[in-house]
Task: structure prediction
Amino acid sequence: MAETLNIGLVGYGFMGRTHSNAYRQVNQFFDVAYRPVLKAVCGRKEDSVRAFADTWGWESCETDWRTLIERDDIDVIDICSPNNTHHDIAIAAAQAGKTVLCEKPLAMNADEGREMVAAVEQAGVPNMVSFNYRRVPAIALAHQLVGEQRVGRVFHYRATYLQDWTISPKVPQGGATFWRLDIDAAGSGVTGDLLAHSIDTAMWLNGPIESVTAMTETFVKEREVQDRPGEISPVGIDDACAFLVRFANGSMGTFESTRYARGRKNYNTFEMMTATWTDGGPYWSPTPTTRTWTGGGCPAASSATSTPSSTPWPTSSRACSPARPYSLTSAAHSTRRSSATPCWSRHGADSGSRSARRDPVAQRGGSSQAATGGQR
Result:
């Protein structure tokens, strides 16, 4: 029988609903060792959070996240509130010995992110960031192929993440609905909201990034404030971002994201241009390999890791004959989300705390990457 894991959820917006749905369904779809219990949900408005709890089956409500963290019957703190609240909640939860799950972007800036990582490492608690796209079947298969060294040498990595919901200058900023357009609540625009997913996927598949050159643009410079009709304020977030990278394995990468791509609701793609080589005696045979994946969300429970490796480029100058090209394409354009995947510090199953012993993600392995951006 699955062991219970008591969840304390902070935030009841879009991601609060998504995580609640995942917790309710995970044991019906996957054979896992733990059964999440919807123990308590926390939000600032008592009437709203109570209605949310009744809808989704949470056992109790809190209006102060500090009270939630202090409760002895909570094993996991799942942070689904706006970005500017992540830092304080995560650090307090870690200091209380709770397992910490945090939506992305992890923090408002790199300094906050480092402090959060330091807190969970010092406390030795299991932790993760919800980079759910790792669990899209096509991306999981890509990771498997890389881990099996079937991809070969990577030359190029290309990623795009396109949406269109802010094209109209009449879309306001701020408030409960449009806080992602408010620099004080979000910290960044598409760079943190969308490209963090692309960056995490790239590093998971292709290894560390060594250098970056980027540009951003804010197309609509002013917007009405949602909670103060008629008041116009400058827009501080980035509407679009494009950047070039060089990976540690020598490959080159391009990344692009915007909320101004008409018709693209949640278009998340990547492509790896690779080649494998076989030693057939005096000749090398290159295999041009193209991989393209497009992904939406997928219910999931854990992440696995492996270190991408590169096949050395042949030193022979003799003529090479191309082998059979191989391509894999998957289309799964979806806006579903789940509370899945990687850790943002190195602590996991090795921790001796009660929370570590009860955390399914920690026991099945996680990533050790910290990130400061992402789509919610």
